[in-house]
Amino acid sequence: QVQLVESGGGLVQPGGSLRLSCVASGGTFSSPPMGWFRQTPGKKREFVAAISYNGEVTYYADSVKGRFTISRDNTKNTVDLQMNSLKPEDTAVYYCAVRTNNNFRWDNPEGFGSWGQGTQVTVSS
Fold it and tell me: What's the pLDDT tens digit per position in 40-50?
């Protein structure tokens, strides 16, 4: 069973940057497609970004396009999310996950599994 652990969250001022990292361990991790989602209290989990198995194809939510960059290093089993020009509305718990079902759209959390525990990102002055 693959386990995912996110890190890098914290408190940052509007306009600032953070880099989140997701490390996979355990099981047989064969560099599957991965995604980042976020969630705020009382709301559904929201798609942020996703990346193909080799990093050549990426997907972004319109709300983060041009500000966030997803990348991966398959030699280290990591997937990172570089977040720039952060806004208060980016405040959420951020989760990484493994794409497990291609029958769903890339932005649908139902197509992902092995969720990490999440890391809190707070954008506030």
Answer: 999 999 999 99
pLDDT at 26: 79
Asked if 53 and 31 count as a contact pair (C-beta separation under 8 A), the reply is yes
Q: Long-range contacts of range 112-115, CB-CB < 8 Å, 24 or more positions apart?
A: 112/35, 112/37, 114/1, 114/2, 114/3, 114/4, 115/4
DSSP-assigned beta bridge partners for residue 92: 121
The secondary structure of residue 86, as a DSSP letter, is: -
* pLDDT mean over 2-17: 96
Task: Kindly report, residue by residue over 72-107, the tens digit of the pLDDT.
Answer: 999 999 999 999 999 999 999 999 999 999 999 999
Q: Rounded to the nearest 5 degrees, what angle is found at the Cα of 53, between the Cα atoms of 83 and 2? A: 85
Q: Residue 6: what pLDDT?
A: 97
Q: What is the DSSP-derived secondary structure letter of residue 90?
A: G
Name, in order, each residue with C-beta under 8 angstroms of 93's C-beta and a sequence gap of 6 or more.
9, 38, 39, 40, 118, 119, 120, 121
